[in-house]
Design goal:
The protein has helices spanning about 15-25, 40-50, 55-70, 80-90, 95-105, 140-145, 165-170, 175-180, 200-225, 255-274; strands at about 5, 35, 120-125, 130-135, 155, 160-165, 185, 230-235. The two termini are about 15 Å apart. Strands 1, 2, 3, 4, 5, 6, 7 and 8 form an eight-stranded mixed beta sheet that branches. With about 270 residues, the chain is an alpha/beta fold. The longest helix has 22 residues, at about 200-225. The protein is built from ten helices and eight strands. The chain is globular, with a radius of gyration of 17 Å. About 45% of the residues lie in helices and about 15% in strands.
Amino acid sequence: MKTAFVLGGGGVLGAVEVGMLRALLERDVIPDLVLGTSVGALNGALVARQPDLGVVDRLTELWSMAGGSGKEVYGDKPLRTVRRAVSSGTHIYSAKPLRQRLEDELGDVTFEELAVPFEVCAASIERAAEHWFTTGRVVDAVVASAAVPGLLPPAKVGDEHFLDGGIVNSIPLGRAVSRGADRVFVLQVGRIDRPLTVPKRPWDVARVSFEIARRHRFQRELDELPDSVECHVLPARGTSSRDDTWLGTRDFGGVQERIDATYDASRAYLDEHL
């Protein structure tokens, strides 16, 4: 049996995936393949490097630091973000804090050096296509996968530019199956469970449109799963519709509570289904 962990995107909500990982690794569910998109690529990189319970402590520490002092990624003062938006015309935050944090953690580690095969999804601008990183420096791939449009600048890798992988494949279930997985654990941040409402403001239109595309693809891939594939969509807890707003991208509060609540829910799910 080939087991895959699929870690979806979700910004600061990615902390809930740590609770899911703890529940899985405590039961000795170890991945043979890890796939990640956006913040799921960040969490997934550490799991692929260290696929044991020790990684949970490290991820919890990293997320707690972000919730405490941090806001490193989205921490600029309002005036600075306005200046950057005007000067760049494309984004309001610098990618340097994210890249530095990843380099501090992963250095020059390549995909080939990881303990478990790892793949990262990003959206290629030049080819208008889904792109999967499977070789080269892991940091470059994660930065590309997490380049949220409008918030962070497009990431250049080689001669190509990339945006957030969630644009093309937010929860890459189908990719796991195509790579030979016959048991898949989906680590998602809870948005797919929340009802959508008709947007009432201009900035809500893009968010709702993106959610429709994200959920439609994931549901289609769920419906098309072969009977031979065992799939578990782990439950997320401690998130709400407020977290899906622009302001929610900056809210690192309650990180530990989200991790703990999702751990409890995932452990109960695994007790019932495994």
